[in-house]
Amino acid sequence: MRLPRFPNGPLARPRRAARAAAISLSAAGLLAAAAAPAMAAGGSTGPGSGPTSIPGRVTASVTACHTAVDLADRYATFAAQMVATAQTQQMSLRLQLYEHTPGTAGYHLVTGVPGFGVWESSAPAIGVFNYSQEVTSLTAPASFRVQVGYRWLGVDHHVIRRATRTTVPCAQPAQFANLVAGALSISRGPAGSSTYDITIRNDGSVATGPFAVGMTVAGVTLPERTVSALESGTRTVVEFTGPACTPGGTVQVGVDPTNAIPESTKIDDTRTVTCK
Questions:
Q1: In this predicted structure, what is the pLDDT of residue 53?
Q2: Side by side, which strands form the sheet with 220-227?
Q3: Residue 10: its pLDDT value, please?
Q4: Sign of the dihedral defined by the CA atoms of residues 241, 244, 247, 250, in that order
Q5: In 3D, which of 176, 116, 96 has the Cα closest to residue 140?
Q6: What pLDDT, in 10s, does the model give residues 94-105?
């Protein structure tokens, strides 16, 4: 199998704590009837009534999928539930983590992640078994999903029933800058010149490195300016001095003309203004 691409491996919440929070046991007999609200990411859902109490029913879901710029802030929580049958003495389930990255075919098993790939068992003679597991430090761009295996155990721990379900994916999109050529302000300067102030925004999710800004006024190309960096969600004003733009003439602005900055889109890197 392909080894994980995580710098230090994908991380799960401490397994002992996660297991204690995630397994919900019922003392009400074979089928639980008391409802309990869902907990936050990393917790569990309590035994429920209604459809969840149908003997042999199983579910697998994504209860949290958090995207972020920083690797450590990306996480997903996967949850599974199974309901006992009349012959069930104990239940067990296993979560296996799979990853899909752009340019690869299908999903690939990720190994070595604490809390995944091992069978977790319920206490004997309970009606509903809930388990959830959180995994952090997810790489991007990638998608993650979990395949859950379920086993119902009868007398002498013999497997009397099996099932498998797969969750929907948790997608972690690529994080890019998005430079935008914004508003242009023109003011008169001395001796038939004008000052041109162009606002440059970064509407993306990550900061940029240095990039150039170019301008052409009525066919005259002005010397490029360099922006050293632009944080996500911020803007800067770049000033040019050039010939006055007469009515009907145009001012053309090009941000990052050499494509030095990876962006989510380049469509708003240019702007053309007709002078009045």
A1: 75
A2: 220-227, 211-217, 250-255, 270-274
A3: 57
A4: negative
A5: 176
A6: 999 999 999 999
**CA 53, 57, 43 angle in degrees (round to 5)?**
75
* Strand, helix or coil for residue 125: coil
Alpha-helix runs per DSSP H in the chain: 15-22
For residues 147 and 236, is the Cβ–Cβ distance under 8 A?
A: no
- Taking the C-alpha atoms of residue 247 and residue 268, their distance in angstroms, rounded to an integer, is 25
Q: Taking the CB of residue 155, how many other CB atoms lie within 10 A of it? A: 8
- Which amino acid, 265? T
Across the range 171-185, mean pLDDT stands at 94
Q: Which two tokens stand for residue 208?
A: 């940029």
Q: What is the pTM of this model?
A: 0.65
* Whole-number Å distance between alpha carbons of 126 and 27: 7
Number of other CB atoms surrounding residue 12 within 10 Å: 20
Average pLDDT, the chain: 83
Contact 37, 46 (CB under 8 A): yes
Contact 60, 146 (CB under 8 A): yes
pLDDT of residue 123: 95
Backbone region of residue 258 per phi and psi (left: phi > 0; alpha: psi in -120 to 50; beta: other values) = alpha
Q: Of 96, 98, 204, 224, nearest to 150 (Cα)?
A: 96
Tokens of 99: 């990853």
- Alpha carbons 25 and 202: distance in angstroms, whole number: 50
- Give the 3-state secondary structure of residue 156: helix
Q: Could you report the per-residue pLDDT of 4-28, keeping only the tens digit for each?
A: 334 344 555 433 223 222 222 221 2
Whether 149 contacts 164, CB under 8 Å: yes
Q: Which residues pair with 97 in a beta bridge?
A: 146
Residue bearing tokens 């075919």: 105
Asked whether residue 167 carries a pLDDT value surpassing 70, the answer given is yes
